[in-house]
TrEMBL record:
Keywords attached to this entry: Hydrolase
Protein name per its UniProtKB record: Bifunctional glycoside hydrolase 114/ polysaccharide deacetylase family protein
InterPro entries: Aldolase_TIM, GH, GH114_TIM-barrel, Glyco_hydro/deAcase_b/a-brl, UCP029570
Sequence ranges assigned to domain Glycoside-hydrolase family GH114 TIM-barrel in this UniProt record: 84-307
Length: 980
């Protein structure tokens, strides 16, 4: 009876290939224990007060590991990387070597005491080693006393996982032997065998980190082999038999806390409690984690299937937003409203965007641990699949995923919809002109609401909602926009107003504020791709169009020569240049010019501050026609060439060429690498041509070819079209492995009316640069143009004007590929806050994006910050500078009493930052006029490479240190030591 009670109290481990719960024994033994009187372990342990606190007041060390468990088949690496270690189910095929997560280790779940036939090593296991069955989990209990068992386990279980890259193991079923061992001697023999297994693992792999799932009986013998000990259900458990959540009794908790004290105080091991809450109830997980942490135990609260991102010492914030939209099948996703209008404000708020078509199969799962919300943009209401959408929306609301509707609901406005959305149906209709009854400050952002009675919907928010725009016609009143307890809505035409006569649009609602409130987005440090170390980034990239064109004024003959002499040799900053092979190469349009053109190309590619790009082979203008059926009627024609040429053509009409995506991408890359690239340089990026709307397969092929991609997006905001609708997002996810990165700004073709004039029009880019910097910094500075800008004096003069303006700003020039890497890092960066301390944050990224934007009160507390080199104010908030993309810091609402020195600004990359009391040391280097400005350093001594630095001291207690540096393919770093 004693054994049955202990097994019931113990919550064992995951079985087989299921994504099941760790807690399993309660359901297995429920029938056996319900009717049998027994002495429980809790009765053997000293009783405590009803609080179950066991007198423990210890806190969890800040250095204790953050460990997560995730047994789903597709671990969300982007979010889980916030943890120090993650236990996964290796039989789902997860390969840790495929992911760049230097701060996160991946541990494999392994069962020691039992095996299921589905495990790969089961077939090699001598069946005489199997002692009994666990019918509930269809598993067999392994005899731990077999002399060859330890070596077998290491060779067949641990070694294959170690070879795959796993460096830690979660040892489960450490007391399954109790199912078959019925006396003390048998139990002791089984325990001794298990001890031999654990020691064999560490003998073969001394660096392996082992987490025990309980194993309390053998810990006295092997605690020195353990990295940590885990157990389940300190406060909230899961009853597998009854399929329900259960509160843990005070007596059970007291017994567990007795084990905790021994492990923590005698063995000095981290102890993790794994508790369970419904996956949609993040408040439950958060509260339970706080309670566990208060006991001095590392918490991890998740769902019973361990298939969601749980709450541990940290809570990872979801950074995905799903945009559900009805898209015209004759168009590409690039021109959809979700991409054109909604994605940009979401990117600015720190969210990566995914897209789904409302007229197709709706996403089956939108879990709240990964998605911050859903935005629905519908142009036609009701849509075709009303029942499917209604059911889908209802499930999202049930799961706690907030939804924002823009333009239309997509559902009939009737009683059932009103009930689902907790809205009031109002009687009547708008028979006359509409007037504004009330209007929130976020309405009338770029233009005042233009009431349209034909769009009136008979709904009002209930008492738990907030009207943003209430309109009336006679006695008929309705809410055209509102915030609700499930999200919010802005109906047509009060979201984006289309000004068709001038081909422009305006936001009527302030989109950033609306989305923030409707989706209840929390304040968080926002990954920012526009800046680094407080300076606005600047990148230059040039498409190869017109490389064969002749200049229309005396001097160099070809456009490339003009730009080489007048621009690239003058402005020695990081620059990305490309050519179109079909324009330059011998197999292209101008084979007789090839020797001359290739010579110019080699000369420009040899410049030390130039990186290489390709602009394809034949310059497709209409990418939808590169893949039959890719986008509507235009694609039905399939690949071909319009002999007329120009932007209406499919591609350059190259004699004898049969279109091939592989030739366009890999072929042009190989041509440049083999014919034009200087030693030590290779093509790094493909710059999309034509309409810059490549299909998914083409984007994926660039990644498969080992190059980045850039172009697309239409950021053309100017004084004559001053709308955020003219600011493109960071890029567009076109499918798995097919993310297209947009150019931050548009090229001179747009500013010169498709190169029809005025040819000085590119100087209006300056307006765009200004409007994307204030009041919010949406974009870095991007000077993006074509080779044909070198053919006309007016265009060349405008280009130089733009360069001069940009370099007169506080910029930090970088390569285009470095910007693309930041965008990719933006998508996968993990942002987490510490449980119980909403002001302390943990950030994990790839190290390419090294700037965060904080838009609320407070500044980083530098004295105890890790991975933060400094901060400064700039457009849109406080910009926090990171060392290598991983950081832990507290945002203090009040200024620090002690004021340690830190980096306020730097036109340089910073690495290896270290603080030792009042001293700083780091390395810095940049491509163009690099410098570092130190705050609180007026009385400090500064050395560069061991020598006293020449510094400029300002009245605000800052010190500027100028460094040497020049644009090249690599950065030259200099060591800086600061003693205060």
């Amino acid at each position: 009876m004693w054994v049955l009670s202990r097994l019931q109290r113990r919550t064992g481990g995951k079985r087989g290939n299921t994504a099941g719960t760790i807690a399993r024994w309660a359901g297995l033994l429920l029938a056996a224990t319900v009717s049998m009187p027994c002495v429980t372990l809790a009765q053997q342990a000293p009783a405590t007060t009803g609080s179950g606190a066991s007198g423990v007041t210890a806190s969890v060390s800040v250095n204790a590991p953050n460990i997560a468990w995730f047994y789903g088949d597709k671990p969300p690496v982007a979010q889980l990387r916030a943890f120090d270690a993650v236990v996964v189910e290796p039989d789902h095929g997860f390969d840790p070597s495929q992911f760049k997560t230097p701060k996160t280790q991946w541990y494999a779940y392994v069962s020691v005491g039992e095996v299921t036939p589905q495990r790969s090593w089961y077939k090699d296991l001598p069946k005489t080693w199997l002692l009994g069955r666990n019918e509930a989990w269809a598993s067999r209990v392994v005899d731990q006393t077999q002399p060859e068992w330890p070596a077998f386990y290491v060779e067949h279980v641990i070694k294959p996982l170690w070879d795959k890259g796993y460096r830690g193991f979660f040892l489960d079923t450490l007391d399954s032997y109790q199912l078959v061992a019925k006396d003390d001697a048998s139990r002791a023999a089984q325990e001794a065998g298990m001890v031999r297994v654990i020691r064999a693992i560490k003998a073969r792999y001394p660096d392996a980190k082992l987490i025990f799932n309980r194993g309390f009986e053998i810990l006295p013998q092997v605690h020195d082999q353990a990295y940590a000990v885990a157990f389940e259900s300190l406060y909230r458990g899961w009853d597998q038999g009854a399929k329900q959540y259960k509160e843990v009794s005070d007596a059970d908790r007291a017994w567990l806390m007795g084990q905790v004290r021994k492990i923590r105080d005698e063995y000095h091991l981290p102890v993790i409690a794994i508790d369970y809450c419904p996956p949609a109830d993040r408040a439950c997980a958060r509260d339970t984690a706080k309670r566990i942490k208060a006991q001095g135990v590392v918490p991890y609260v998740t769902d019973p299937d361990l298939s969601t991102i749980g709450v541990g010492r940290i809570e990872v914030l979801p950074r995905k937003v799903l945009i559900l939209q009805d898209r015209d099948p004759r168009t590409t996703i690039d021109t959809s409203e979700g991409v054109r209008f909604v994605a940009t404000p979401l990117n600015f708020l720190g969210y990566d965007v995914e897209y789904a078509d409302i007229n197709k199969t709706l996403p089956a799962s939108v879990p709240p641990d990964r998605y911050a919300g859903v935005v629905v943009w519908v142009n036609t209401s009701p849509i075709k699949q009303v029942a499917a959408l209604s059911s889908w929306v209802r499930q999202r609301i049930h799961d706690g995923v907030r939804i924002a509707f823009l333009n239309q609901f997509g559902l009939p406005v009737d009683g059932s919809m009103a009930d689902m959305f907790k809205l009031q149906l109002v009687r009547g209709r708008a028979n006359g002109p509409l007037s504004v009854v009330s209007q929130d400050r976020m309405m009338g952002f770029e233009m005042a609401p233009q009431p349209e009675r034909r769009e009136a919907q008979p709904i009002k928010v209930s008492a738990n909602g907030q009207s943003l725009l209430r309109l009336k016609s006679g006695n008929f009143e309705f809410d055209a926009a509102a915030i609700t307890d499930w999200g919010g809505y802005v109906l047509n035409p009060y979201a984006v107003f289309s000004m068709d006569t001038v081909e422009q649009a305006r936001w009527v609602v302030q989109p950033i504020e609306f989305l923030r409130r409707a989706l209840a987005l929390p304040d968080m440090p926002i990954p920012d791709v526009t800046s680094e170390n407080g300076r606005r980034l600047m990148l230059v990239h040039v498409d190869g169009d017109g490389f064969a064109s002749r200049a229309e004024f005396p001097g160099p003959e070809y456009s490339g020569e003009v730009l080489l002499q007048d621009v690239w040799e003058k402005y020695r900053i990081p620059t990305t240049l490309s050519v179109i092979e079909g324009e330059v190469g011998a197999s292209g349009l101008y084979p007789k010019l090839t020797p001359r053109l290739e010579a110019i190309a080699r000369q420009m590619f040899a410049l030390p501050y130039v990186e290489l790009g390709t602009h394809t082979y034949s310059h497709p203008f209409d990418w939808s026609r590169t893949v039959p059926g890719a986008a509507g009627d235009r694609a039905k024609e399939g690949p071909g060439a319009d002999k007329g040429g120009g932007d209406t053509a499919f591609a350059l009409s190259i004699p004898g060429y049969k279109f091939s995506l592989d030739r366009e991408i890999s072929g042009s890359i190989n041509y440049i690498n083999e014919r034009l690239a200087p030693p030590g340089k290779r093509v790094k990026i493909l710059q999309w041509s034509g309409d810059c709307q490549p299909p998914e397969i083409a984007v994926r092929m660039t990644w498969d070819a080992g190059v980045l991609n850039l172009n697309g997006g239409d950021t053309t905001i100017t004084r004559s079209s001053p709308s955020w609708t003219e600011i493109a997002p960071l890029g567009i996810d076109k499918g798995p492995g097919a993310y297209q990165v947009f150019a931050p700004n548009q090229n001179e073709n747009v500013y010169t009316n498709d190169w029809t004039g005025p040819f000085y029009g590119f100087d209006r880019l300056i307006e765009t640069l200004q409007l994307t910097d204030t009041p919010y910094r949406f974009k870095p500075i991007n000077i993006y143009y074509h080779m044909y800008s070198g053919t006309k004096l007016a265009s060349l003069k405008a280009l130089k004007k733009v360069y001069d303006y940009a370099l007169a700003q506080p910029v930090f020039p970088i390569y285009s590929t470095e910007y693309v890497a930041k965008v990719l890092d933006f998508r996968s960066m993990a942002i987490a806050r510490e449980v119980g301390d909403d002001n302390t944050w943990v950030v994990r990224g790839d190290g390419d994006l090294r700037e965060l934007r904080w838009m609320a009160r407070g500044t980083p507390r530098m004295a105890d910050a890790r991975g933060v080199v400094g901060y400064d104010k700039a457009a849109g908030g406080i910009y926090i500078h990171l060392d290598d993309g991983a950081a832990r810091f507290t945002l203090a609402p009040e200024a620090e009493s002690a004021k340690p020195a830190y980096i306020a600004e730097a036109a340089a990359f910073v690495r290896n930052f270290a603080r030792n009391g009042n001293a700083l040391s780091f390395e810095a280097g940049g491509y163009y006029k690099p410098f570092v400005r130190l705050a609180n350093a007026g009385a400090c001594r500064v050395k560069v490479n061991g020598n006293p630095a020449g510094t400029a001291r300002a009245q605000d207690n800052t010190v500027r240190v100028d460094l040497t540096g020049a644009a090249a393919q690599t950065v030259t770093y200099q060591r800086i030591d600061v003693v205060c």
